[in-house]
Amino acid sequence: DVKVTQSSRYLVKRTGExxxxxxxQDMDHENMFWYRQDPGLGLRLIYFxxxxxxxxxxxxxxxxxxxxxxxxxxxxxxxxxxxxxxxMYLCASSFGGGNQETQYFGPGTRLLVL
Amino acid sequence: AQSVAQPEDQVNVAEGNPLTVKCxxxxxxxxxxxxxxxxxxxxxxxxxxxxxxxxxxxxxxxFEAEFNKSQTSxxxxxxxxxxxxxxxxxxxxxxxxxxxxxxxxxxxTQLTVWP
Lengths: 114, 115
Description:
Chain A is mainly beta. Chain A has strands at residues 4-6, 10-13, 19-25, 31-38, 42-49, 56-57, 64-70, 73-78, 87-94, 104-105, 109-113.
């Protein structure tokens, strides 16, 4: 079975702090994704990566950055956390092409910024 | 542009009755279509997908979905609902002509099955 893990289930940070959210997948997937989920808004794509050291902006990249130094790991960085970044963050991964487009999700990190 | 609409924020159904969760999509080319389910405080779990072939797709937990190209719909169905089916359901689409693997998700439909 595909396994996607996220470093924390719950996180509480203060405004202005630098926050790192880590995601690791064990299926040698090329693609990795970071979403945030807010009530009534569904899933919104922040950033994604289709290869090591490659990244693409999603729909809401402002205030975020990402890092992909190794194929299995994709990090989301909040440079200076703000209260409007309080949300559920979901990581996902998928194979790089063909019909293998299913995204597999981690359990999520619920971030509270005070 | 690619987009997904889930016209109902909430669907309520009695246990044992059939359920339908609606999804319509918009893509410039031919679609890949997906359904995911999310239980409280969990990540999304894959239910089923349409890639090609038979318009009726069967997935996990007795769910199925029917691809209708003329109506650009991909409604999720189950003949007999269970209380344990209560969860948040997301429809997603990808244009198979796109070279990047991102999906576009709907806003989700909260399904509640009453005992």
